[in-house]
Every structure is written in structure tokens, then in C-alpha cells.
């Protein structure tokens, strides 16, 4: 089942360095910059040069403050039965 193409059932503000529990199934970037995150698989990834309004289609367990300059981050949660 694909989470990327699902519609979010809910959203929450992301504070960098806080564990995302449950994991975010997408991240909306409200203010331009870079986002460094840890994927649900444990890999650290940096998305550079993101513009405001970008949505990252990635399952993330944490956003890393040291590598994140983007602001107003919002995590997406999948619909019931898709977690």
C-alpha cells in the first residue's frame, strides 16, 4: 500500500530534534531552507534548497535541528489503516 499517494488524515507541527512518534508520512515546508531528517529506515538525509510550499514525500522519524534551516514544518499522518 502506498503512503505517498494517500491523503493525510491529520497534521502536526514539527519541532526539530524531537522524535516524531508516530512517524511523519510526509513533511510540508512552510519556510524555505534545508531539511535534514532521519528516515523510518534509519538513514540520515538532507534535502537542500527547498522552497516554501514544498511537501516532502518521505516517512521520517526525526528532523535534525543541526542540518535544518527551513521553518514552519508540518508532519502528515496517514489515514486510519495505513500506518
Fold and architecture overview:
The model has no long low-confidence stretch (mean pLDDT 88). The chain has one domain (10-77). The chain has 83 residues and is mainly beta. The radius of gyration is 12 Å and the shape is globular. The chain starts with 9 loop residues before the first strand and ends in a 6-residue tail after the last strand. The protein is built from no helices and eight strands. The strands form two sheets. The chain has a four-stranded antiparallel sheet, with no helix packed on it.
- What count of structural domains? 1
Q: Work out the helix count.
A: 0
Span between N and C termini? 10 Å
The H-and-E topology, N to C, reads as EEEEEEEE
Please outline the major beta sheet: 4 strands, antiparallel
Look at the structure and give the mean pLDDT: 88
Share of helix among residues?
under 10%
Report the portion of residues in β strands.
over 45%
Q: Mind telling me the C-alpha Rg?
A: 12 Å
DSSP E strands, number: 8
Gross geometry: globular
**pLDDT < 50 stretches:** none
Instruction: Kindly name the structural category.
Output: mainly beta
Cross-sheet strand order for the largest sheet: 1-8-3-6
